[in-house]
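Async update (no meeting this week)

Hi team, since we skipped the sync, here's where things stand on the single-chain job. The sequence we agreed to prioritize is pasted below, unchanged from the tracker. I ran it this morning and attached the output directly underneath so nobody has to dig for it. Comments welcome in thread, and please keep replies under the output.
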Amino acid sequence: MTARRVRLARFPFRFIFPALLLLLAPFADRPAAAATISARVEIEPSSRDVAVSNQGVIAMRPGELPLAQVDGAGTLPVAVRAFFVPAGFEVADVRVTRRDETTVATGRLLSTLPRAESEARLELGAPGEAARDAYVLGGGNLAGYRIENVALLPYRFDQATGRLLAARTLDVSLELRPVAARAAGDLVRERHSPEADRVFAEAVAALVANPQDVPAPDASASRSLPTADGFAPQDIPTIDGTAVDMVIVTPAAFEATFQTLADWKTKKGVPTVVRTVEWIEANYPDGHDQAERIRFFLRDAYTKWGTYMLLLGGDYSLVPPRSAWNTYFFGGVEIPTDQYYACLDGTWNDDGDQFWGEGSSGAGPGDNADLFPDVFIGRAPVDNVTQ
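Output:
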């Protein structure tokens, strides 16, 4: 059976992607031997998920879990879980074994629950398709690790008996198949920081439902940390010269002030450089706009310097965000985001139009933006040196 993708309508990414999750591992390109990965997911049903009227009508409501509109099953709560997928593979199918199933309510399930304007809701399945216990939502790369999100349905309605059943335990099995090559636009890090490898490997293991499958970083790897006098990175990112853990992007007017911070970070063992917006404009002239030119530089810093931390030194008027197109609110609105600088795979504008970061919809796949971040990011929203 081929895994089906789902359409994502007006669904904010907070239900899919935990905020500020990052990963880097030196083993991301290692061929994997397994064709199946498995995990046990525990979900505790809540009385706040279900409402039963005096007439015996069962209505699901957003409680501990968000709601999904499932073709062939109606409106049901959904639990989204992330899974690590070994390099060289993709998900072909997902199967679920339900355990510890109990009756939550008896009656008649309201198949379509009206949605409040502020409520997010996934749409799963396809017309005429039998409902499933799990759907592959898609995913992305966290600094080389492939992460796939899966929507799990702990509740199901038995039409024959009129019972709403909830499973506390779901044994999930992802069937894998080999992929010939990386997707165009996916980055490969050419230089690694052992400290970053360790921190991010721990982070991804905490994120996914199958931490036992996440490769551990090489504990024997080490790197001598440069002193301020011995820190000699190249002007433009390259694998030659000193590695750079942290980059500060700021206007030229703030360069001296942020250089003080960079020097202190370097002395503390975090090699840091300052690059001005003006310097980036001069050395990366090919982008569509200033935000894309900054991102081109950051992609080089990530792959060649091994950079994994980023500080934007200035408010939006000085270091621009990316305005991402979001149809969740009011039919479409541009939302400023710094996530564009943290999620470095791809272009965020696959269809080449005036809108960036478009999600998939009935009109098409959108921009196929990989929203898994590759660097830690922060912004000092200052407007002057005094601040």
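Quick observations from my side:
Residues 256 and 274 are 9 Å apart (CA to CA).
The longest strand covers residues 89-106.
Reply here if anything looks off.
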